[in-house]
Amino acid sequence: MALLQISEPGESTEPHQHRLAVGIDLGTTNSLVATVRSGMAVVLSDELGRPLLPSVVSYGRECIEVGYEAQAKQSVDPKNTIVSVKRFMGRGIKDIAHIETMPYDFVAAQGAKGEEGMVKLRTAGGVKSPVEISAEILKVLTQRAEGALGGPLSGAVITVPAYFDDAQRAATKDAARLAGLNVLRLLNEPTAAAIAYGLDNGAEGIYAVYDLGGGTFDISILKLSRGIFEVLATGGDSALGGDDFDQRVFCWIIEKAGLAPLSASDARVLLTRAREAKEYLTIHGEAPITVRLGSGEYVDVNLSTAVFSEITRTLVQKTISATRRALRDAALATAEVKGVVMVGGSTRMPQIQHAVGELFGQEPLNNLDPDKVVALGAAIQANLLAGNRAPGEDWLLLDVIPLSLGLETMGGLTEKIIPRNSTIPIARAQEFTTFKDGQTAMMIHVVQGERELVADCRSLARLELRGIPPMVAGAARVRVSFQVDADGLLSVSAREQTTGIEARVEVKPSFGLGDDEIAGMLKDSYTHASADAFRRALREAQVEAQRLLEATQSALVEDAALLSVAERTHVDSCVARLQGVLVGDDRHAIDEAMAQLGQATAEFAARRMNQSVRRALSGRNIEEIEL
Amino acid sequence: MDFSRDHFALFGLPRTYALDLEELDRLYREAQAKVHPDRHVLLGDAERRLAMQWSTQINEAYQTLRRPLSRAKYLLALGGIEVDQERRMSSEFLMQQMEWREAVAEARAALAGEELERLHLRLKSEMALQYQKLQVQFEQSAAAAAADLLRQLMFQEKLLAEIDDALTAVEA
Predict the structure, then answer these.
(1) Do B63 and A423 touch (CB under 8 A)?
(2) Nearest Cα to A137, choosing from A49, A200, A46?
(3) Interface of A with B in 446-485 (CB under 8 A)
(4) Which candidate in A8, A32, A114, A290 could, as Cys together with A375 as Cys, close a disulfide (CB 3.0–4.6 Å)?
């Protein structure tokens, strides 16, 4: 039954203009989806009222289970039940810590050039990439949101650890694509938390966000002032989290109880007990650990707070050291930090609270739910990006790139092109030349990291520039351009300057998936539900077209003066055309009409942008602007 | 779109070393509030691409002007003077640099975090004096002297980054 919609007093009277947008916290241990309803950010729960979705996916021969159902399978079917898949995103098999204690059947995949690629897992449901496994979690959250909000989502903001490198970010975006989501933005987790905290408390000044999750650690230093959230520096460790504390306890139990090598299911049981003991210590001084293993061995040990602190001391120290570095990068002293916002379930550990409090000389801020704050911040950003901004709600986010980007030069050394903590979007170009006479091709190796040797940095991509005209060594001028967009994602292009020959390059991600691989996965998922997929694609095209029409119309109202009569007539006819095909079910006609309208308004867009920049920078409103 | 204007002209600021940094901050924020891609997500591809290009350009201009070293280097470049590090430095300065480097390496090897902190602070205050001198040279339009001083400062900035790296290594 359709309900009558009544808008709130003072709110928009056109409810159809409210676009459904969500924020998704795709966590190592748990995932959440949140949205803004009547001006309030809320987490959307499942039908049983549970806000969290355990980030666990279990593959059977026929079906895939996600969340609590999958979690229940952990100890009975550990090999096919994937937990903490986030740790494998954009990672090769050699990058994964504690791999020997994991119950999975890993498949080392090859990258584009035969080097190591993103790891895969062999399950009862087939060989799966971490991207596909993450997409299953995102699909469940999408269904939950569409059910709760009563319609298709126009877009989502997905959070990633601030310290995620380019390969990990690209893998996350690919997972969202695979789940059929329109990604409005990849947002850094600590920044999302800062938005939720800052807007809620009207905070101004320098804040630190200390975010220790299940598998990742981030520290971000932000300056909040007059509606601008400016990240000054960020640091962390994308392979350090609560899981590592569990691992330390797990090893301690094995040693203490003198256990023989464990079976996969015993290992899983013991890891679960280790985690429970860690959580128990949050409010107790000692945790008893008793368990009968499948091997018949009986474990009965007591873990005290003192021992727990001792065995995890180096982990805590790593986070404190990263925090100091971020402060140095921001050129700030601890005393200049007004507040420290604690995020992530792992910050509940008392020794973490203590260490952070000691470093900053103040009590950390714990008045937010550390599990939910990231999703809430993402929802607020999604609402804004979807165009649901309420009048007066005016804020902007300026984020940074966490790790330096560079190129491999002679001798296996790194040449930094974009330093860490540069505000994004950012672009830089560098010129290179040929090494030998008559050289017609050039291999460019893009890396990310702070170390001097290429071998110590992360390989992001290798590009081959072909078709350089033969010249003497050193005569060619190859300009390599890096562009990092607002999602923190890199694109690289190269061009030979002296001849003007544009040798387009193809980026082959070392640890990512190629476009053809993604297309293949998408096709696979479509063949299972092709009618559904068709409807979905059509609906998405319609939402997109509607968006473009509204934007064009409001631009025409604001800046009609920037168009000549002939130009206006042309734009109007393109608008009419798009409106005409919008009601039909021909997706390609919609795409085509959108492209035409886009072309017709490109010059108009440029003029509008010029005008608004001039107004902003001249500090006053200019009545007439010459073009 | 006109990307050819220099960074000072972009913000409508005078071409000077002694820049009003608060005014620069204010203009930067206002400009980003207009052009940032987050403000243009609803529009067509062309406008979104433009927003990214503008936002990139404004970030580049702001980063260059905000830091004294890059601002000075940029100012000299506008005047046709490229400051490169190939030029010979005075042997006195090079000797000092070697002593500094030895002190940093020793402290790093000894895991002496506090000593590194002290070195960091001492270098910072030396550099603050250098930057004051630089300002005077710009006021007197002594471009060649400014370029020499800038070369030294580039060495010192690098040294500072090395101290910070050593601190990170020692703390880990």
Answers:
(1) yes
(2) A46
(3) 483, 485
(4) A32
Question: Token pair for residue A290?
Answer: 């008793």
CB contact under 8 A, A396 and B33: yes
Pick from A324, A396, A547: which is nearest to B32 by CB? A396
Query: Which residue in B has a C-alpha nearest to residue A617's C-alpha?
Result: B11
Fold of B7-66: Helix Hairpins (1.10.287)
Which CATH number is B91-171 given? 1.20.1280.20
Q: What residue ranges of chain B are covered by domains with CATH 1.10.287.110? A: 7-66
Q: Which of A396, A591, A614, A627 is the best substitution to test chain B (most B C-beta atoms within 10 A)?
A: A396
Buried b (16+ CB within 10 A) or exposed e, B116-141: beebbeebeeebeeeeeebbebbeee
In the numeric block, the tokens 């937990």 are attached to A83
Work out the pLDDT band at A198, boundaries 50, 70, 90.
confident
Specify whether A211 is catalytic: yes
Burial tier of A548 (Cβ tally within 10 Å: 0-12, 13-18, 19+): buried
The pLDDT tens digits for A466-504 are 888 888 888 888 888 888 999 988 888 888 777 776 655
State residue A625 phi and psi, 5-degree precision. Answer: -120, 125
Among candidates A144, A138, A131, A148, which has minimal Cα distance to A182? A138
Q: Percentage of residues in chain A with pLDDT exceeding 90? A: 51
| Residue A111 DSSP label | -
Backbone angles phi, psi at A206, to 5 degrees: -90, 125
> What is the C-alpha to C-alpha distance for residues A337 and A71, in angstroms, rounded to an integer?
40
* Tokens linked to A14: 């056109």
Q: Does the annotation count A105 as an active-site position?
A: no
Is the model's pLDDT at A303 over the cut of 50? yes
Instruction: Tell me what ipTM this predicted complex has.
Output: 0.89
User: pTM for the whole thing?
Assistant: 0.86
* Mean pLDDT score, B15-29: 93
pLDDT at A7: 38
For residue B132, is pLDDT > 60? Answer: yes
Rounded-to-10 torsion of CA B113, B117, B118, B119: 100
List of domains in chain A: 15-190+377-384 (3.30.420.40), 195-238+328-371 (3.30.420.40), 242-313 (3.90.640.10), 405-518 (2.60.34.10), 529-618 (1.20.1270.10)
Residue A308 clears pLDDT 90, i.e. is over it: yes
CB A213 within 8 A of CB A241: yes
Active-site position among A95, A166, A174, A211: A211
Do residue B44 and residue A609 have CB atoms under 8 angstroms apart?
no
Positions of CATH 1.20.1280.20 in chain B: 91-171
Higher-confidence residue: A587 or A120? A120
- pLDDT, one tens digit per residue, over A235-284 is 999 889 999 999 999 999 999 998 888 888 888 889 999 999 999 999 99
A384 touches chain B (CB under 8 A): yes
